[in-house]
Amino acid sequence: MKKIGCFLCLITGCGLAQALVAEDRPPDWPCEQILVKEVPAAVVWAGPSIDGLGDAWEKDKAVKKLVEQFVSPYYDLDAADAVVADFSSKQDPSQKDHKLTLLFAGVLQTLNEERKKKLDGIIRYARGQAARANKLSGELDEMVQLQEDPSQAAQERLALMQKEMEIKQRMFDEREDFIQHLCTRPMVVEERLGVLARSIAYYLD
Q: Which pTM value belongs to this model?
């Protein structure tokens, strides 16, 4: 049984985010955590290289079935270790490490794709929020101008805008608060990847 070194820290207590190298922070990235578009294999995997494997894992029915099972957000990760152990025990000793590596490659590829969708969703949401902020700013500027206009039409317009602004500001603030929830979604995927990588690597020779 292969001893997995200090990289376990990265996929358990320390968290993946601390191990990843930050990319240039785009102006529309709203989260506190660093933006890393893809989790590299080396961050969570101390086993054989997956370079060149590509989509080979999809051609192995047993591996593909496990990958699809493991990456589901509804899958109970507490059961993963026993499932990997059973899968490992059924492999030809000469092929066991290769099969486990294929399994990891499939998990990594699939979860990276899922994580990217969540990152893209966060950025789209933040861009929409920025557009709303610009629109609100323009309306506030108009309200300032209306305050300086004593005409009845201007004051009626101002009163209407003030009522609408209260609603718009509340909705904007609620959307702003929701960003923090969105920012946790990629982290959930990272945690799943870390747990699965550890379970698979444990059974390498």
A: 0.80
